[in-house]
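Hi W.,

Here's what went into the run:
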Amino acid sequence: MKSRFFPLFVTFAIFTVLYLYCYTQYSSFGSMRVVCNLLRNNAHLGIPAIGVTFVILSGGIDLSVGSVIAFTGVFCALMIERQGLHPLIVFAMALTIGTAFGATMGVFIHYFKIPAFIVTLSGMFLARGMAYVLTTESISIRHPFYLEVSKLVYVFPDKGRFTFAAGAFLAVVIVGVVLAHFTRYGRNVYAIGGNPTGALLLGVPVGRTIIATYALSSFLATFAGIVLSLSKRSGDSTIALGAEMDVIAAVVIGGTLLTGGVGYVIGTFIGVLLPGVIHTYLTLDGSLSPWWIKIIIGALLFGFIGLQKLLSSNTGVLETLRIPRPARQSAG
Amino acid sequence: MNQQLITPLRNRVSGLGLSLTRLHNRNMWTLVALILVLIVNRIISPNFFTIRMVNGRLIGSTINILDGAAPIILLAVGMTLVIATKGIDLSVGAVMAICSAVAVVLINRHDAGADNLLYTPGFVIAIALGVGALCGLWNGFLVAFFGIQPIIATLILMISGRGIAQMITSGQSPTFTNETLAFVGRGVVFGVPFPIYLSFAVLIAVSLFVRRTAIGLLIESVGVNDRASYYTGINARLIKLFVYVVSGVCAAIAGLIVAGEVKSADPHKAGEWAELDAILAVVIGGTLLTGGRFNLVQSAIGVLIMQSLLTALYVSKLHPTANLVVKAIAVLLVLLLQSEEVRGHVVRVFRRTS
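Here's what came out:
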């Protein structure tokens, strides 16, 4: 097996083992109900995680997604409830604003050479701040369109409800996989993440690709905000606090390297579901305290990084631990 | 003859060149930004610089700014060293939460009458600092010996740290009444809040330590190129380990201050966003995220800029919810001023007109 597939394989293996273990403990893990809930409850993390995967593949980072989700929710609620606009028009406006926001961050990163970490950190403050400026109260949305969307649901025989959010999540994952592996844009992202100078010399449009990548990330975060708004039927400026770190953790657990150029969109999909499965298990179990979820996610992160480290260096972890010594010239 | 004619002219040109290089000097921009923010403060509230003595305690906006900035200055000291080695420490907020949780849980055992030397205030503070050092050691080990990228290595503790803090306090936010521990956060010495002394003492001590010894130079060297540093005989791993430990201890002190201020340990709120504020302050202070040259005092000025800005926002009748927006825009402006590309443009425009 190619070693670059190995982290992905391990992620899949751990997910399968974990899921099977959960199934032996609680047979409800075999039902479509749990599967559908997993997809629905993690859609607002999973959708931006696909965008952040592209950003990290290109060698950058995006800390603004949680705030963009919150801003979108508040924006939609205000525009629909206070301004009386039709939700579809509002969604189009929100997606335009979100995409422009991401593209602007991309311009700052590429043309002004300010580190992505700092630019997207400012973006995070800006988007969250704009949400607070719009309103600090929670606004519920009562537009009939929202009711229509909530009726868009496929009910499995065992009462598993495949909602719009779950469908949107799966659709974004599929589009993400196609975009990453079957388009010129995807190859450009991998090239830039692998070696920016090399990519530039080979004629990859670096600037355009980087700006498009941050625009894509913010676009998907906005879309996640819309999906969350549809399922919560309200707008609240404090939702998705700290979501950016959960998203980055999911991307890393999914086997994408933060150095860029290495990783798979499908890995992120599993990386999002893995903490979700643990969460479901802890909820069903009930005896474990809620703080264990954070500690377990931290341990998982550590485990995956350690594993990647072990695999990415051909010599193994013992060799990385040993201090390298310059080769001694043989006397002669 | 000719020489005499040319020299004054050349002097004038080089004088212009000097002012242009000053324009290029990023250190100056930080100070200019602080002065600008202070002037804005003065315009908004005419008695901004007045300090009154009330009940043996100095009261005034500037004192409030210094007091509020103290925990972030402490974090920024550790963070500057970490960033100078090309690292980053996302875990400081979580470490603050862990250390304040440890201190409060232990001190409450002392106040409940547990007869154990370890629960006396002095030992409790020492244990909290030790826990901070341990957290730093963990981060440093992952970065220096395991070769994990700093952002991810510290993300592990950032995410799990709040869980650990909750575990220590059993999910509660315990309060305490011990005056010795509270003194760290709300004590007053000669009319000035104790955290101000603490932050400045740490700032000066660490500055002297890194600048009077070779450590500072070694840190910069590791930040620029750790492999080359290793081959010139610098123990790059030990240096990295050291900076993360310093960062952990600084976070522990900051955690004690925050716990003392509100006389409780909140695993969720203690040090929330603190890591990001500290990183922003360091970057505003001119230390590059790519490592190398650092300046602790500049980072502290960066903290003061943000704190003064916050005060200006509170005092002005601007909508209080606009805080984050103004902060984001101010940070971007400072960063644009510092950006080589933008300054290059500015200098070129100046050259053309002169």
